[in-house]
Amino acid sequence: MSAMTQTPETDTETAPAPTAPVSSPEAPRPRTRTTRSAAPWRIVAAREIQVKLTNRGFLVSTFVTLALIVGAIGLQLFLADSMGKITVAVVDQKSGQIAGLGEKLARQSDQDVTISVRQESSADAVRETVRSGEAEAGLLYEKGGWTLLGDTGQNDVAATWIGAAVQNSALAANAQDAGTSMEALSKGAQLHHTVLSTDKAPEGAVKMTAYFFGFLFYLASVLLGSALATSVVEEKQNRIVELIASSVPLRALLVGKIVGSTLLALAQMTLFCLVGAIGLLATGETAILTDVVGGMGWFLVFYVVGIAVLACLYAAAGALATRSEDVQATTTPVNAVTALVFIIGIAASGGMREILSFIPLTSTVTMPARVLAGEVTWWEPAVALALSLAAAAAIVTLSSRVYRRALLQTDRKLSFGQALKLGD
Amino acid sequence: MLELKELVRDFDSNRAVDHVSFRVSGGRLTGFVGGNGAGKTTTMRMIMGVLAKTDGRIHWDGEPVTAADRRDFGYMPEERGLYPKQSVLSQLVYLARLRGQDAAPARAHMLELLERLGLAEKSQAKLESLSLGNQQRVQIAAALLGTPKLLVLDEPFSGLDPHAVDTMAELLREYADAGVPVLFSSHQLDLVERLCDDLVIMTRGRVVGQGTADELRHRDRPRFHLVTGSPAGWARALPDVTDLEELPDGARVELRPDTDPGLLLAEALRRGPVHALTPLVPSIADIYREMTAA
User: Fold this and answer.
1) Which portions of chain B are predicted below pLDDT 50?
2) Does A16 touch chain B (CB under 8 A)?
3) What pLDDT digit, counting tens, does each position of A253-297 carry?
4) Where are the stretches annotated Disordered (chain A) (predicted)?
5) Is this prediction's ipTM beyond 0.95?
6) Which residues in B lie closer than 8 A to residue A29 (C-beta atoms)?
7) Domain parsing of chain A, residue ranges
8) A87-183 falls under which CATH superfamily?
């Protein structure tokens, strides 16, 4: 047999030096086993994080998301800035005074409004200026009445504050004609507001916070989910899993992957939140921030547990696939669940929300929302958390079983049921 | 020493491994041969705990094998594969750490092994950038993490270039000489013949032959090639001859076991000149074909 015939090498590799007895096993090599080394899942988690942090796709998606957040805040800043600045075209001085009064009233109500007046020679010239877009609105006094002109629609700032100014000045004039004063006219017309449950967050703030965390949860699932499922199936696809399975229980492999991905997702979210918070502070939108911070504690706890449950589901979905191409199909149900959690979390209320707040995953958004709304006693969030943790443990056990059984089934994609029916 | 006792594995109604028993002794290279689907890979997977056994026992040094034992077993699965996008050294160190070794000594040992395999310069390269032959060598390194107590290698020579075959063979010999039991499967019977101390032959899930290469060669009736210069059909009449094939210059003769071939020689000399009487030792390939043909 011509086994010794040289085959051409495909690269410049050097032939090994088979005579060098470098690692002769006879030589008593120092024992590399330690009495107690790191738990396997920690080694797996560390590798997972290290690989991700050097993965270009992960870094790019993080920076793109950051850029989007900064961009959105910038855009809001720009819009807020330009929205409050309008130019009103007028013919006479009286109109100019009304415009000035409008600006004054807006400032009294803490609104950042600047109304510039543009003097035109005639009503027609005013109409032309508005039509050309050089002024957002035109104000005319014709036939004993005021007319506010807009080009294609009414400018809200002009309508609100010039409207108030016209009303104000007319009332004052009418009061004078009637021989009375503004104060006398508006006596008893004030409505005082009193909020009874000052300890509860206002419904608007609850909705706002639920929306915020619901969205973060959804975003995390988009970023974390398919990446985790892919990383699980990759090991199956490149067959290294058989080597790993001979060293550590597959459960340790899955737990390590879940912990690594979850930590990364949380770090990513923290980064996004920080940038978002800095942005809100920079734009002076501190009111939103105060509302959100109020419910932050519970939301964070549920968020971490929710992400972990989600990660378990994605890992299970990845275990079912055979090639990375199948991941899209096997993760679809999990993606749908995540979208539902988001939608239900922000839409549900009343009894429905109460039920959902105990179901793992949907509790991620609904339970902290209820805590924030002041509807719950102390044990309710504790029970919901325990249920979520139990679900996470059950899913990991189940998915490691599925993974173990699907491990050597490299020829086809499996359904969850099929995988469970396979023998070990 | 590794010992399998009555090992069974069923896949649904199909019995892939049927009461398989054999030993892999320390200091010996044991070749595991059999056709495709004979059950070798399934047996090896059960040894490594990747696949559960249906029945039977696997013992290591007289005790049932544990997960901790298995972490010290070097394994090369039939389905090869490592992380394509990770550097050679870092993934080997990772695998060693999963086997409970510390990073620093594992790293030093791996560098040594990579040097041995001619891959020292590629230790920082991504696996996928290596040629196929070099990727196979990394796979060898992955099977030799740390200080294996036992080596279980499924087709370790398949896909290797001739240089790597030599290195692999030498490595296996070294490990065996150091007292490590080595079990490897192979289709290359010439290699098995050259390397192995012991053999296990499997077909259709059953062990049909096992023992040292010599035992297997001589377990049958002894055969001789008698060269007399003319056809020697006369020998058929001798009482200890069980089979004979007449040749133009003599005959191929099969004798009853434990027969003295001197009787045959004496009779031949009585009849004329004898040029040679040579024992015919079957090759492992012959034995394999004979045993698996049934």
Assistant:
1) none
2) yes
3) 888 998 998 898 888 888 888 887 887 787 776 766 666 665 667
4) 1-38
5) no
6) 109, 147
7) 87-183, 199-421
8) Periplasmic binding protein-like II (3.40.190.10)
